[in-house]
Design a protein that fits this description.
alpha/beta; six-stranded mixed β-sheet; two-stranded antiparallel ribbon; 9 helices; 8 strands
Length: 288
């Protein structure tokens, strides 16, 4: 199995409360109204793919690829626009200017890397964040941390619109979906508890029915369309990371590796997703 780092980076990142306050002055580890978990989840996938794909490293060294963050993607087929968390793309030669680099996101997003992860990052070629031309890889991450049953329709619809947008614009592009699911039996919701904390009122803890809630999200994600080859509609890969997170400002986030998390060989196992997508990148974009 490949040596990957994304889930560990994500868990370590979410263990640290956000330096940015919400509107009630609270510093949550996870806030459903923030996209910090999505951005760092996608950064980890890009990091692992870059480490696995020699061709992507060659393209980065030659300046043949750039990054787009919160990139607006217009579906040519249906003329709909969707902002994608992170894309790897050919540069737009008609526009100039950069807004940082892949390595620089470690500082700007506050990603805590281990010594080994940082050493690997320094060995890999950097990628500029710059105007995007043709998209090669799109990364979209979503989370289901609480109220799992209520979250299912929203999660499905948001992810479904992501692969539709990317493949409506380019059938060759690789669309990757990443889902973060909370397996903790208890959770402090930022939506419920931020106003309570602001006014000095007792907090409320949400109870989850585990493993049923986690399994329901995984089952819903498994219903998303997937494709093989460069025709048809669906994601080229979907990865699922199951976390144990209470969101109490202090308890470290843990990765669940046993059941009900996807196991090695599953269509949704993170490690397999990285290997498959690195190979697909090498096979699809050797000509650029």
């Amino acid at each position: 199995m490949a040596c990957v780092f994304g889930p560990e980076i994500l868990a370590r990142f979410l263990s640290i409360p956000s330096p940015k306050e919400d509107k009630y002055g609270q510093h949550w580890q996870y806030n459903s109204r923030s996209d910090r978990h999505s951005k760092v989840g996608c950064w980890g996938i890009a990091f692992d793919m870059l480490a696995q794909s020699g061709l992507m490293q060659q393209h980065a060294t030659a300046g043949k690829i750039v990054l787009g963050v919160n990139h607006p993607m217009r579906d040519f087929k249906h003329n709909r626009e969707k902002d994608l968390d992170l894309v790897i793309a050919r540069p737009d030669q008609s526009r100039s200017g950069t807004k940082g680099t892949f390595r620089g996101l470690v500082t700007s997003l506050g990603i805590p890397l281990s010594a080994a992860e940082d050493a690997l990052l320094q060995q890999l070629p950097d990628i500029s964040i710059a105007p995007v031309g043709a998209v090669l890889v799109s990364l979209e991450a979503k989370a289901a941390m609480t109220a799992h049953v209520k979250a299912k329709p929203r999660l499905y619809d948001e992810l479904n619109s992501s692969h539709s947008a990317i493949h409506g614009a380019s059938s060759q592009a690789l669309a990757i979906g990443y889902v973060q699911v909370n397996h903790s039996p208890e959770f402090y919701s930022s939506v419920i508890n931020s106003p309570l904390l602001k006014h000095g009122l007792p907090t409320e803890i949400t109870k989850h029915n585990q493993p049923k809630d986690t399994l329901e999200i995984i089952d819903k994600v498994s219903q998303l369309p997937r494709r093989v080859g460069k025709s048809g509609d669906g994601f080229d890969a979907i990865g699922i990371t199951v976390l144990d997170m209470i969101n109490d400002f202090k308890t470290p986030v843990k990765i669940v590796t046993g059941s009900p998390a996807p196991q090695p060989g599953s269509n949704f196992h993170y490690d397999g997703m990285i290997v498959r997508m690195a190979n697909e990148y090498d096979a699809t974009f050797a000509h650029i």
